[in-house]
Amino acid sequence: MVKVKEIMRWVLRFGLIYFLLSVLTALPYWGGDCMREELKYQRHEDHTPPWTKWIPCWATCFCLPTEGPRALLYSHGTEFVRMPSGGLAPKPIPQPGEWHVAAVKTVGPFFLPYVAYTTSTGWHMRLGMRWDDVDHFYIPSAALHRLC
Q: Is the pTM of this model over 0.90?
């Protein structure tokens, strides 16, 4: 009989390999080709660690060939943005008391995760490949901050 721990090890290994392949399939889309010129050379000023302030925005941007993330799970009041194709994508920063889990398609069968939650008291947490719903580019993001 196969042990549960052994099964979990294989699931974790598969998950790690899948995640790494998803990241590798996104690499050809790295760079700021899809960013507006005035955004490309701005520095990260938005709730990132101080050591990242010298990195220009184009250096962490991905121009993936997809319109927006697909919501997998979300709270009742999650706001969505209509994409040019007519589909809906969750806004990257949920309203207070709301949350969502989304998947960002890279290439083929590969996806990268995005999880966002804003507490009712205004604390915002996110982790994953964040979609900019105005300029339609992606940026890896991990944040914990209080919204104004």
A: no
